Amino acid sequence: MISLPLNPENPGEVLACLGLFEIAHLYEACYGGFKEEGGRVVFELQSSLSLRDLLQCIKDAEIEEVSREEFSGGARLEFGEEEWSRWSPIRIRMKFPPPREIVLKWWLNPLFQKKEKRKEEKSFLKGWSGNQKPLNVLGELQEKIEEVGVDRLLQDFWYRIPFPSRGFDARGAWDPAMTGYSFKVIKDSGLDKRKKKEKNPYISPLCEFLAFVALRSFHPREVQRGNEKWIEYYLWKTALPHNMARLALIGVLNREYLLSGWRAKIVKRGSLEKGGAYGSLGQAEPIFL
Q: Are the C-beta atoms of 218 and 246 separated by less than 8 Å?
């Protein structure tokens, strides 16, 4: 049994717990759920794998780009070959015996739409700019996890370091007043006298890596409220298998089995003028059940 205390107001921490569930599910049938314990919320994962096993699995994994030819299988894609490295699916090869692998591509589906529709139909949850490659985004997070080390993460699962957020860990989300400005603009501003490293927000690289993985199967409900975009997610208090947990996250359970519901706003970052804005998850507010 793995027990992880978390802040349910931080959607990144919730998704990260489910990312751990996603990896454990590759190896065996396991169950996950949430409970309140001593005034805090805890995620429980019923698995024969230990937390050390799963962290070592993440640290040692090989991450690679899926080739355009392998992905398309001869199908005609709606975007050019020159765009591929910015949108390609990512394969994660887990070395923990027996070896397993998963392919992440949750950000790619909108590109099967006509080019003029892409902006409006892409997922709210793509938290990096169009010039960044998914392979690099995930690879850099894994490098930081390795630097922090498994032993440190076993003591403090959400250990945070100064590092550019990829939009998942709400503790590292910028204030909405920063809307329309990229990290580079803020960090290079003459108004900010801090050292370069200190200008990064403090984020958990493990939180963001696992949230990235979780979205392979676990998709919060994306909702539009006026001109604002939000996600909604629910915590459940019964240990559920992977396929049922996916439905529980969006509240498809009798309310007696739900622990709490949450709604988080998507804060825009990047250059609005150039149409390159991308999403960042903010702190969530409760949904009254």
A: yes
How many Å apart are CA 285 and CA 58, to the nearest integer? 31
d(CA 133, CA 128): 9
Single pTM value for the model: 0.86
**What values do phi and psi take at 213, rounded to 5?**
-70, -40
What stretches of 149-253 show up as alpha helix (H) in DSSP?
150-155, 183-187, 205-214, 242-248
Pairing, β 221-225 against β 228-236: antiparallel
What's the rounded Cα separation, in Å, for the pair 151 and 30?
24
Q: Where are the extended beta strands (E) located within 118-188?
A: 161-162
Report how far residue 220's alpha carbon sits from residue 27's, in angstroms, rounded to the nearest whole number: 24
Match 């149409």 to its residue by tokens: 275
Query: Which pLDDT score is estimated for 78?
Result: 62
- Give the model confidence (pLDDT) of 266-287 as tens digits: 887 655 444 455 678 889 999 9
State the Cα–Cα distance between residues 138 and 209, nearest whole angstrom: 6
Name the residue with tokens 């003591």.
155
Alpha-carbon torsion angle 250, 279, 285, 186, nearest 10: 160
DSSP per-residue letters across 212-239? HHHTTT--PEEEEETTEEEEEEEEESS-
